[in-house]
Design brief:
Helix content is 45%, strand content 15%. By secondary structure, it is an alpha+beta fold. A five-stranded mixed β-barrel has the order 4-7-6-12-11, surrounded by four helices. It has a four-stranded antiparallel beta sheet with strand order 2-3-1-15. A three-stranded antiparallel beta sheet has the order 9-10-14. It is elongated. The two termini are 35 Å apart.
Length: 592
């Protein structure tokens, strides 16, 4: 008799199911621990469940530029607004076109949603303009300048300081006073433009006599446009929101303009700004970062190749000016976001430092990175969904899921009896993994659970239960063929495994295609369906199969107990098939 072969593997190739279960439990414990450690113990909710705001933006081209509203520019604007909003860490912000000139922005309530709403409205082009004059935000009446008034004539000696520009938080006390403001504006308008495109103008007037109220000696007569701009500057009241909103209407990047902005102390100031020398398209990237050496927040900027040349040219000229004409203003939507001063020529990259907080530095970096849009937009409507309505929808979705799960449980208990314990434990493991991953994916990739995603999770209950049913039915088929439970479990697995993999592959492929070709909330359904399909494979391979192998060794299941769900009599098992030996009749020697 031949000796039995040693080292033969189990039919399934899985000889240590206990080790497999232990590894899965360790992974689950690590994920759950990571969820509690991160503080995200619940999945983030989308706008339809948590409430939020929907903003409708309408494109408004400049006069005679109606052709600027085209699919290319609209898609570019969508991409920039989407990156701007999501750059703040807002979960599930949706930006998409509607019609040929509208953009819909959905911002859920939550982290940084208010900052996102503010930045969505700032959709105009971003410009870097040289500062010609700065004053307190309140209106003033110009008076003749006294003797000794500060001159705004450019310095003849270039600055010897090196380093990057820092924002100058100019307070009202540092701005020209009421008695000198008109003179400063007049001198700034007559001084040569620091930009390469500016044509030299008349030189600043000479200093006036020392008599109070005396007329400046031989001042050049200002042009009507300069006089109008001076009047607009002195009469502007930046403390009034309506004036701030309309101050730059009808101007272009080639005009000298008046604008408002807040300084580092949170006080409004007004600026006289020259033509734009650099625009937002010349900024390659920007970010608000913490300087580890000085312990302050700053904004770093990297320019494109063309932008670097422009920035070097303008900063080289500004660095030779006296304050405030050595500043350049970062202007977005005709609002001065920041006005850093320049002490040397900068190119390639630069940093802005000042009285930044973490929030203000990151906001400015976000605006610089994503601020350049090809079109101007007007906010048409702003609609807010209350959290109460979202809560009702969430309850309805959870109720539908509970009803579906209850029906699956009743079916499993009635039809599979003892085997239903394996299915229910597998569903529990799948539920824990799904919930944990959804909670962790919120801060990791910005995933937010919306109503279609809840529907995807409900559909996944049926997909997961279907995998168990396929395996159980294969085991029952083997028992009907007359095999005992332990070999039936191992022989059924290869056939069930192929069916499960094919079924899950089709489901995952459908989810992937749906995620790619759709936008908005439907992507939430596709993502959840794909995630739960992958988890179904993990649970069946690393939990259901090893657990079934261990239970097949117990007396309750191995003996085919009537409540085990594997009773051979109940299944109509056939007696084991045995081959009969064929015997030939003896041959008569006489016949041979």
């Amino acid at each position: 008799m031949a000796a039995p072969k040693k080292g033969r593997k189990a039919p399934s190739g899985q000889g240590k199911p206990g080790r497999t279960l232990a590894m899965l439990l360790i992974v689950m414990a690590a994920l759950v621990g990571g969820m509690f450690w991160s503080g995200e113990t619940t999945p983030r909710l989308g706008i339809d469940l948590a409430g939020g705001t929907t903003i409708t933006l309408k494109a408004e081209p400049d006069a005679g530029k109606e052709s600027a509203i085209n699919p290319t520019n609209m898609n570019t604007a969508v991409g920039i607004i989407d990156r701007r909003v999501n750059g703040l860490g807002v979960s599930e912000a949706e930006v998409q076109t509607q019609g040929d000139r509208n953009i819909i922005v959905n911002i859920p309530k939550g982290t940084n949603s208010e900052q996102a709403q503010k930045q969505v409205g700032t959709t105009a082009l971003l410009y870097f303009r040289p500062v010609l004059a700065v004053a307190a935000g309140a209106p003033t009446t110009p008076e003749p300048a006294k003797s000794g008034a500060p001159s705004t004539k450019p310095s003849a000696t270039p600055s010897a300081k090196a380093g990057n520009g820092a924002p100058k938080a100019t307070s009202p006390s540092g701005a020209p006073s009421a008695s000198t403001q008109g003179r400063a504006v007049t001198d700034a308008l007559k001084a040569p433009s620091p930009g390469p495109s500016g044509a030299p103008a008349a030189k600043p007037s000479t200093a006036p006599s020392g008599k109070p109220g005396a007329t400046p000696s031989a001042p050049p007569t200002p042009s009507p446009s300069d006089a109008a701009l001076q009047k607009k500057f002195t009469e502007l009241n930046c403390l009034v929101p309506a004036q701030r909103a309309n101050v730059g209407k009808g101007t272009t990047d080639k005009d000298t303009i008046v604008a408002c902005g807040e300084n580092g102390a949170g006080q409004w100031e007004k600026y006289l700004l020259g033509p734009a020398e650099v625009d937002g398209k010349d900024v390659d990237s920007a970010a608000g970062v913490l300087d580890p050496q000085r312990g302050i927040w700053k904004v770093t900027m990297d320019f494109t190749s063309a932008g670097s040349k422009k920035f070097a040219a303008i900063t080289g000229k500004l660095s030779q000016q006296q304050p405030p004409m050595n500043q350049f203003a970062i202007v977005l939507d005709n609002n001065v976001v920041s006005a850093p001063s320049v002490s040397s020529t900068l190119s390639g990259s630069a940093e802005i430092t000042g009285n930044f907080t973490q929030q203000s530095a990151q906001d400015l970096g976000n605006i610089l990175s994503y601020g350049a849009l090809p079109l101007e937009f007007k906010t048409e409507t702003v609609t807010t969904v209350s959290p109460a309505l979202g809560g009702e929808q969430l309850k309805a979705g959870l109720l539908a899921g509970a009803i579906g799960l209850a029906l699956v449980v009743i079916y499993l208990l009635a039809y599979y009896r003892g085997l239903s314990v394996v299915a229910l434990l597998s569903l529990l493991v799948s539920g824990i993994l799904t919930y944990t991953l959804m909670s962790l994916l919120g801060p990791a990739i910005g995933f937010a659970l919306n109503l279609p995603a809840v529907c995807g999770a409900i559909v996944a209950i049926g997909i997961t239960a279907d995998s168990f049913i396929v395996y159980f039915e294969r085991i029952r088929d083997e028992i009907r063929e007359g095999r005992t439970l332990r070999p039936a479990v191992e022989r059924a697995w290869p056939r069930a495994r192929r069916t499960i993999l094919v079924s899950d592959f089709v489901s995952f492929l459908a989810a992937a295609v749906l995620f790619i070709v759709t936008v908005g909330k439907v992507q939430g359904f596709a993502f959840t369906l794909g995630l739960t399909t992958v988890l179904d494979v993990v649970v069946v391979f690393f939990f259901t199969k090893p657990l079934m192998t261990l239970l097949a060794r117990t007396k309750f299941f191995a003996s085919g107990h009537p409540w085990s769900g594997l009773d051979p009599k109940r299944l109509g098992a056939k007696p084991p098939l045995r081959r009969s030996r064929r015997t030939s009749a003896p041959v008569d020697p006489k016949e041979a």
